Amino acid sequence: MQLNDKIYIAGHRGMVGGAISRRLQTLGYTNLVTRSSAELDLRSQAAVNEFFATEKPEYVFLAAAKVGGIHANNTYRAEFLYDNLIMEANIIHAAWQNGVKKLMFLGSSCIYPKLAPQPLREDSLLTGPLEPTNEPYAIAKIAGIKLCEAYRDQYGANFISVMPTNLYGIGDNYHPENSHVLPALIRRFHEAKESGASNVTVWGSGTPKREFLFADDLAAACVYLMLHYDEKELVNIGTGEDLTIRELAETVKEVVGFTGELVFDSSKPDGTPRKLMDVSKLHKLGWKHSVELKEGLEQAYADFLQKNQMVTL
Ligand code: GDP
């Protein structure tokens, strides 16, 4: 991938696509192509075909997806399955038809079976039942992986798949119900601090364990693998370190500066008990994360404050 090659980042308005765009710009890539969802509806096969035929990108980062936390995944099950299936099918097929040199498909750690051995190895895929709360999203992402593999097998396309762990960072979604745990807690602790509330509610039991990767680290890994990895097998992207939701809540509380108590709401689902990535393959390929959780949380909270102020002004 040369600095003037034409690179399409699908989903550049999202946290991940935005981070990939920033990373490419920092490294000196000058020919980036992007479209907002208003400009290009990725669910329309005709629109996607026309876009690829006109723009003829040489490289594609497929970071467009309908995403959300445990509640959103469990509630909008049809949208999470249909939108994600059709977007990835349209893009992968058009990329092949238009001679894209290389495509990277971004999946998720939820593709692995609910009770797969921890840490999650790449070869655990399709070895057992999925976590029910995010099964539609996981099925769509598994289909995307299989599309990349099939286009490689049948047509020789250089399409690769990477599986990020739980992500957070600049430009995250802070919706109170539909977001993931980390941005949800940033908002909730911040609002509790502002209003002088005595406690903050955390969903579930607090015992599930999760791993968190800063989105800019993910973007650096994606560009690194785009440059250095050409194989069919997926690659996990994470830190290889996890903590309980209770420990996460304590850390967010400290970063935000809230001094009250935590209350656990057991009427909300815990989801999968643990989701830690085995990152030995990624490390062997020569990449390791650089932003630790506390530092990433400080940056994410600063970003939240900046955007929050803009909304209230
Ligand atoms: P998951 O990794 O797919 O389960 O996605 P989430 O980030 O939505 O949830 C991770 C864990 O955090 C689950 O055990 C949730 O029950 C827990 N959690 C605690 N408080 C919250 C919250 O306010 N929002 C969300 N989304 N999850 C929460």
UniProtKB/TrEMBL annotation:
Q: Which InterPro entries match?
A: Epimerase_deHydtase, GDP_fucose/colitose_synth, NAD(P)-bd_dom_sf
Q: Which residues form the NAD-dependent epimerase/dehydratase domain?
A: 7-238
Biological pathway: Nucleotide-sugar biosynthesis; GDP-L-fucose biosynthesis via de novo pathway; GDP-L-fucose from GDP-alpha-D-mannose: step 2/2
What Pfam families does the record point to?
Epimerase
Write out the residues that bind substrate.
Answer: R188, W203, R210, D270
Q: List residue numbers at the site (Important for catalytic activity).
A: S108, C110
Q: Which reaction does it catalyse?
A: GDP-beta-L-fucose + NADP(+) = GDP-4-dehydro-alpha-D-rhamnose + NADPH + H(+)
Q: Which keywords appear in this protein's UniProt record, sorted alphabetically? A: Isomerase, Multifunctional enzyme, NADP, Oxidoreductase
- Entry's EC annotation: 1.1.1.271
- Does NADP count among this protein's keywords? yes
**Residues reported to bind NADP(+):** 11-17, 106-109, 141, 164-167, 180
**What positions constitute the catalytic site?**
Y137
User: PANTHER family, alphabetically?
Assistant: GDP-L-FUCOSE SYNTHASE
User: Which family is it part of?
Assistant: Belongs to the NAD(P)-dependent epimerase/dehydratase family. Fucose synthase subfamily.
Main role?
Answer: Catalyzes the two-step NADP-dependent conversion of GDP-4-dehydro-6-deoxy-D-mannose to GDP-fucose, involving an epimerase and a reductase reaction.
Name used for this protein in its record: GDP-L-fucose synthase
Q: Which organism is it from?
A: Chitinophaga rhizophila
- Give me the gene this protein comes from: fcl
